[in-house]
Amino acid sequence: MNLPHKVKIVEVGPRDGLQNEREIIPAAVKVALVDRLTAAGFANIEAASFVSPKWVPQMATSAEVMAGIRRRPGVLYSALAPNMQGLEAAHAAGVDEVVIFGAASEAFSQKNINCSIAESVQRFRPVALAAREMGLRLRGSISCAFGCPYQGEVSSDTVADVVGRMRDLGCDEIDIADTIGVGTPRQVQQVMARAAGAFPIAQLSGHFHDTYGQALANIYACLEIGVTTFHSSVAGLGGCPYAKGATGNVATEDVLYMLHGLGIHTGIDLGAVVDAGQFIASHLGRKAASRAGNALAASRAAAQP
Ligand SMILES: CC(C)(COP(=O)([O-])OP(=O)([O-])OC[C@H]1O[C@@H](n2cnc3c(N)ncnc32)[C@H](O)[C@@H]1OP(=O)([O-])[O-])[C@@H](O)C(=O)NCCC(=O)NCCSC(=O)C[C@@](C)(O)CC(=O)[O-]
């Protein structure tokens, strides 16, 4: 089986990773995290979210975060924007890419963005048009592509249908998200292959939460069928406030350890990501949820005189 030589990792820790934290994290800590991730070599960092602060209070400091970070030329800084209000705030804050986020589950769509799938597409249409006029890159994200915490099964037909709608809105990239981490490798290949019938596989990305410990296997399964973009979260941070019980995204350190071990180029310095993971974990007062990150940090500490 031929695996790709190069993979793009979108670091989503500062947004997906932190949005679910109960204690409000100072903007300066978020800025320091994004700066560390920039220095580690990511080409794309999801740094902020311009959603209603009543819905996700942790993301209320997004404009402050965007204003504080040290940008490296060529790096894409992304943010969620569910509606025109979010888009305008994201544009004013200087994001490079906005993410419209829908779902393949009607129940989740209602819980997360307070509207049906069809209504969400109507809401995204002016956002997509305006984002184009503003010269912003546009990404679409589809939650619950492998299962839903409210309605259970989700069909691959529905995923492909939503992919088609996101494509018609002009998305440059579309994320197929396992919000609650229930997908398994063969299912993931089937859903991705259906999605690739509606949108080029080179512009699809896999966004896996690791709730059931399947995320690395699912990424490997995606590599086998030609997916080359994945999302991950430093220190395995994360969870969705509207998907109770869902744990964090797959840890970036674990993904990098696997990809580099496979000889796949990412352009990212794993050691610097381990440092970033230890930094944010220590701020949050708990151990990082990355097996490779913690092992590398421990072996480094053991090697010190
Ligand atoms: C979509 C809405 C706004 C609809 O929420 P709504 O209540 O139907 O909206 P509304 O238009 O009636 O507005 C209600 C209030 O929110 C304000 N408002 C409205 N929009 C904004 C905005 N953009 N920025 C700031 N404020 C905003 C608006 O001004 C108003 O304020 P009020 O008049 O009551 O004072 C809401 O449901 C929402 O913000 N949802 C976001 C939920 C969310 O962020 N979830 C987590 C991200 S998705 C995710 O994590 C999944 C993903 C992407 O990672 C992939 C995966 O793993 O599945």
What does this structure look like?
One of its GO terms (molecular function) is metal ion binding. Belongs to the HMG-CoA lyase family. This is hydroxymethylglutaryl-CoA lyase. By secondary structure, the protein is α/β, with parallel strands linked by helices. The protein has a single domain, classed as Aldolase class I (TIM Barrel, Alpha-Beta Barrel). It contains 12 helices and 8 strands. It has helices spanning 13-17, 27-40, 62-68, 84-93, 106-113, 117-133, 156-168, 185-196, 215-224, 252-261, 270-284, 291-303; strands at 8-11, 44-49, 76-80, 97-103, 137-143, 173-178, 204-208, 229-232. The chain has an 8-stranded parallel beta barrel, surrounded by 8 helices. Helix 3 (62-68) runs parallel beside helix 4 (84-93), helix 7 runs parallel beside helix 8 (185-196) and helix 8 crosses helix 9 (215-224). The protein is globular. The relative contact order is 0.15. Bound molecules: 3-hydroxy-3-methylglutaryl-coenzyme A. 3-hydroxy-3-methylglutaryl-coenzyme A binds at residues 16, 19, 49-56, 80, 82-83, 85-86, 89, 101, 112-114, 141, 143, 177, 179, 207, 209, 240-242.
